[in-house]
Structures are given as C-alpha cells and as structure tokens.
Amino acid sequence: MKNLKMLVAVVMMGTAALTITSCGKYEEGPGFTLLTKKARLTGVWDAKSYEDEDGTTYADNDDSTVEFTKDGNATFTSPDFPVAITGKWEFSGDKEDIIVTVDGDATTSSILRLTNKELWTKDSDGDIVKYEKK
Asked: Coil, helix or strand for 122?
C-alpha cells in the first residue's frame, strides 16, 4: 500500500510539472512565471533588433525607448524627436496583444515573448521587434 501511494504521488508530481511547463500564453514563453503580465510589461524598454517578415534582421543602435507604466501610459523617446510622444496602452482581452493608442490612432502588436527582461512583439505586417528592459 505504501508503494502504491508513493507511485501515485510521483505520477501526480510529474503531471503537475508537465502542466506548469506548458502553461505559457506567449509563443516564445516564458512557460511559467510568478509575475503578472502587467508587472512584466511595466518599465522602460530599449529596442535591440528588428526582423522583417522575410527574416532579415537589423540591429537597433539608437537610444530610442518606450516606457509602459502600470497606469496605462506609454512614452516614446528618441534622439530623432525633440519631444517625447505619449499615449496609452492596454492589453487585448486575452492579453495576447498590446494595443497602443497615440492621438486617437491605435496600433495592435502580438506579444511573442514577455519576461521581466525581454519583450518581443510582432506587428500586422509580420515585423518582429525585440526589446530589452533597461
């Protein structure tokens, strides 16, 4: 009887581990995290690379950033613009997309990866931007 209980416990632990590793919402992960999606997104992000739909990758070498605050504000700064651009952000209903609205124009990007240090988004043209948190 003791061996049967032990076997059941091991099977249940294996099932729980499999469930935890496969519960990620985003295509590129993470599989499991204790931080909320909003907590992971909040902060200042620096674009590191752009990938066109055809797979061509370009490094981002400027100091442009985007900041997402927990109260739904978004601020874009760039050395090319004398004034920061501000707007609002929100998750889609299923939290698989981020919607950024600037001056009444909304742009939706799919979230491919969202960790505390990495954000990968894909726009409607199929272009991927990979960010790192500052």
From this structure: strand
At 29 the pLDDT is 60
**pLDDT single digits (tens) 60-116:** 888 899 999 999 999 999 998 899 999 999 999 999 999 999 999 999 999 999 999
Using DSSP bridges, classify how beta strands 118-122 and 85-91 pair: parallel, antiparallel or unpaired: unpaired
Q: Which of 64, 108, 65, 103 is nearest to 87 (CA)?
A: 103
The dihedral over CA atoms of 119, 33, 68, 109, expressed in degrees to the nearest 10, equals: 50
The values of phi and psi at residue 13, to 5°, are: -65, -40
Residue 10 reports pLDDT greater than 80: no
Which positions ≥6 away from 96 have C-beta within 8 Å?
A: 25, 26, 110, 111
Return the CATH fold of 35-133.
Lipocalin (2.40.128)
On whether the pTM is more than 0.85, the answer is no
